[in-house]
């Protein structure tokens, strides 16, 4: 245990002390049923203030300690990532409950961006055996390589939340994570002159973004430490040097020996700082009955 908060069990993830596990006890879950039932999902979608109401309900049940703790974790360069989940999937926990729980956690950290793909503050999507999409997001049998979110949008994307709502007939598909400070080739790629050039970033039609943005792969935080904004599918190299740099970057990320592979249980939400954590997904083992449903929320920190 690394901190005591009422109704929660908090401990280091077995794969990395940079990732903090937070298990919500049954006592808290049962007390959330009533305030969560006050609003249906449509209310949360149409009336943004209701999202803060359920977030406050969650925080109040932990004596307002949860919000302080997770904000410290997500902003701290030494950690920057936590996994929060019900300790037990009690009978009243369903998809709607998990969406509300994810919404509450997100609104203790900041303001979600509008997700153009879904037209809401969140996106739900399935990964299944057959797929006709135009991005790696739903390609079950191909690795989703390490990346950050928000590379092709104008909004700030400080953090990312991903929740597992459902999983059936699944082998593989584990979450991959890599912290920039653990990446063996970070200094080499960060100091490459091409890394500071502006790259063009676009997106496939399914993202519903009708513009392109330009920015470098790397930037620095207030202390001069590297930050990254990168995904392999969306940069549009302007010349040979940019194309070669991107290939070198991609290869060195995927070959990292410090990549963390995590199997997330149903009901789990992983929340990561989007500036120094990269995330991805391993390929699934082929199965015609495979089904996984995920929820995604990404956004900016509250101004403090």
3D architecture notes:
- With 304 residues, this protein is an alpha+beta fold.
- It has a single domain, classed as Double-stranded beta-helix.
- Helix content is 24%, strand content 29%.
- The chain has seven helices and 17 strands.
- The strands form four sheets. Strands 1, 2, 3, 4, 5, 7, 15 and 17 form an eight-stranded mixed β-sheet that branches. A four-stranded antiparallel β-sheet has the order 6-16-8-14, covered by helices on one side.
- β11 and β12 form a beta hairpin.
- α1 packs antiparallel against α3 and α3 packs across α5.
- The longest helix is centred in the C-terminal third of the chain and has 15 residues.
- The two termini are 28 Å apart.
- The mean pLDDT is 94.
Main attributes?
alpha+beta; 304 residues; single chain; Double-stranded beta-helix; 4-stranded antiparallel β-sheet; 8-stranded mixed β-sheet
CATH fold group: Double-stranded beta-helix
Question: Based on CA inertia axes, which overall geometry fits?
Answer: globular
State mean pLDDT (0 to 100 scale): 94
Assigned CATH class: Alpha Beta
Q: Work out the helicity level.
A: 10-25%
Number of continuous helical runs: 7
Find the CATH superfamily.
Clavaminate synthase-like
Just name the CATH architecture.
Answer: 4-Layer Sandwich
Structural class by SSE content: alpha+beta
Count of domain modules: 1
* N-to-C span: 28 Å
Low-confidence stretches: none
Tally the beta strands.
17
How does the major sheet shape up? Answer: 8 strands, mixed
- Portion in strands: 25-35%
| Radius of gyration from the alpha-carbon trace, in angstroms | 19 Å
Order of helices and strands: EEHHHHEHEEEEEHEEEEEHEEEE
């Amino acid at each position: 245990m690394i901190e005591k908060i009422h109704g929660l069990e908090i401990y280091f993830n077995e794969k990395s002390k940079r990732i903090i596990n937070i298990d919500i006890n049954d006592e808290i879950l049962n007390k959330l049923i009533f305030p969560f039932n006050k609003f249906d999902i449509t209310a949360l979608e149409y009336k943004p203030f209701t999202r803060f109401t359920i977030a406050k309900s969650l925080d109040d049940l932990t004596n307002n300690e949860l919000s302080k703790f997770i904000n410290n974790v997500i902003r701290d360069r030494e950690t920057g990532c936590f996994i929060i989940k019900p300790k037990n999937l009690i009978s009243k926990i369903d998809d709607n409950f998990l969406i509300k729980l994810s919404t509450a956690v997100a609104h203790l950290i900041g303001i979600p961006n509008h997700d153009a793909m879904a037209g809401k503050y969140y996106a739900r999507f399935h990964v299944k055996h057959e797929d006709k999409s135009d991005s790696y997001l739903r390609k079950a049998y191909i690795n989703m390589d390490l990346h950050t979110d928000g590379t092709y949008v104008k909004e700030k994307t400080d953090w990312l939340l991903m929740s597992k709502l459902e999983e059936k007939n699944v082998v593989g598909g584990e979450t991959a994570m890599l912290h920039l400070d653990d990446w063996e080739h970070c200094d080499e790629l960060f100091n490459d002159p091409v890394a500071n050039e502006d790259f063009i970033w676009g997106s496939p039609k399914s993202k519903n973004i009708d513009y392109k943005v330009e920015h470098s792969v790397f930037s620095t935080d207030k202390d001069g430490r590297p930050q990254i904004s990168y995904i392999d599918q969306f940069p549009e190299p302007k010349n040979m040097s940019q194309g070669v740099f991107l290939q070198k970057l991609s290869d060195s990320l995927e070959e990292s020996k410090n990549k963390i592979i995590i199997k997330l249980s149903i009901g789990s939400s992983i929340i990561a700082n989007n500036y120094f954590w990269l995330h991805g997904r391993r390929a699934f083992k082929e199965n015609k009955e495979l089904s996984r449903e995920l929820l995604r929320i990404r956004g900016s920190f509250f101004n403090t």
